Amino acid sequence: KYGAKLELENAEEEDAPSIKLNLYYTSRSQTLKSHQYNYYDRTNGVLSTKYPEKRIEFIVNYPLFDEGVKAGVRDAKININQLKDQELNLLKEIEEELQNRLDAIYSSHKNLTIAKKNLEENRKYYNGIVRKFGQGRYTALDVKKALDDLAQSELILIQSKVNFNINILRYDLTKNSLFEKYGINPDSIIDEILKASDGGL
Fold it and tell me: Which domains are seen in the chain, by residue range?
């Protein structure tokens, strides 16, 4: 993106009016003895600087109808707009992917909370059944069913914990893989955020 901006700046600079001033200073020789004396003769040669030549060039450039320059500016602006679109699409893709992973974390955490609650309720129910079984109010089949429900609740809780941790891991992996895929340095992003924060203070 920086390169595209630099390209646009260069194109706009070429499209803008410019003024150039060139100064030239040379020394000629007037000796007729030989070619070598033209340089080494301190009386009339080049080194004598007795016959200086000075020249000034004043160039004004105003590219009113330079189609090449106009096309360069147009192409540079198109490149910047394309890069902006690509950047927006990239940010949208990253945001959607991370949001999907976050939604999975929220969902699995909700399931984990429900599993903990169900386990606690089934444990209380089982303990109550066992006490009442000793009083002859419930059969062994009732106790077995309550125990099966309790065991099932424990398995569901374990699976919910596993799913929750897997989704956290997937979120981290997705985040890191996206950074790697698009060559994004998380440290540089943090630095930019800190700089922006400092600038706003």
Answer: 18-61 (no CATH), 91-189 (1.20.58)
